[in-house]
Amino acid sequence: MREKLMARWLSLSGPEAEPLGRELITRYDEPHRRYHTTTHLEAVLAHIDTLASHAEHPDLVRLAAWFHDAVYDPRRGDNEERSAILAERALPEMGLSPEAVATVARLVRLTVTHAPAPGDADGAVLSDADLAILGASPEVYAAYATAVREEYAFVPDDAFRSGRAAVLRSLLDLAAIFHIADLEEAARANIMAELERL
Hints:
Blueprint: H1 2-13, H2 18-28, H3 38-51, H4 58-68, H5 79-90, H6 98-110, H7 121-131, H8 138-151, H9 157-172, H10 184-197
C-alpha cells in the first residue's frame, strides 16, 4: 500500500516532493488510526479518479485528499483546520501558486461540513469521495463503523452512542449526502441500519 501510494504521490507532485509524500503516508499510518488510514486515503483517491471528469481542478482535489486527514487526533475537534494549515505550509515548497495552495486548503476545510456551495465542482468531488464509504456494501460499512468505534475507544459506550447517533442523524437530515456519486440510497440505508444497532 505504501509504495502504491508513493507512486500516486510522485505522479501528482514530482520527485522533488518525495519527502513530503513519505511524511504524509507516515501520518496516515499512525498507530492510533483505525479508519483514517492509508486504506482510507487510497479509497478517497480512487473515488476522485472515478469522479475526476466533474472536477474543475482534479489534481488540486487530489492534493486536498492527501492533506484532508493528514492531522488526525480523535480527541480534538480541529483536525481539518490543522490539516489545512499543514497544506498551506508545505505546498508552496512544491512550487504551487498561492491560488492553488488556497484552493487546496479551502477544500481540506470543506471536509468539516461536506457541504460545498452550489457550483463548487471541486468541493463536490472531494466531499463525495470522502463520504463514499457511507454508500459501500453493508459488510464494508459495518467494518468502517467498527473502525470508527476503535478510534474512539477512549469514549465510554453511552457517550459514543449518543455522539455517533447525532452525527448520523445530521447526515440523514441533509437534503442530499452526495452531490455527484450515485450512492445516496445505499448510504441512507447503511446509516439507518447503524442507528438501529446503536
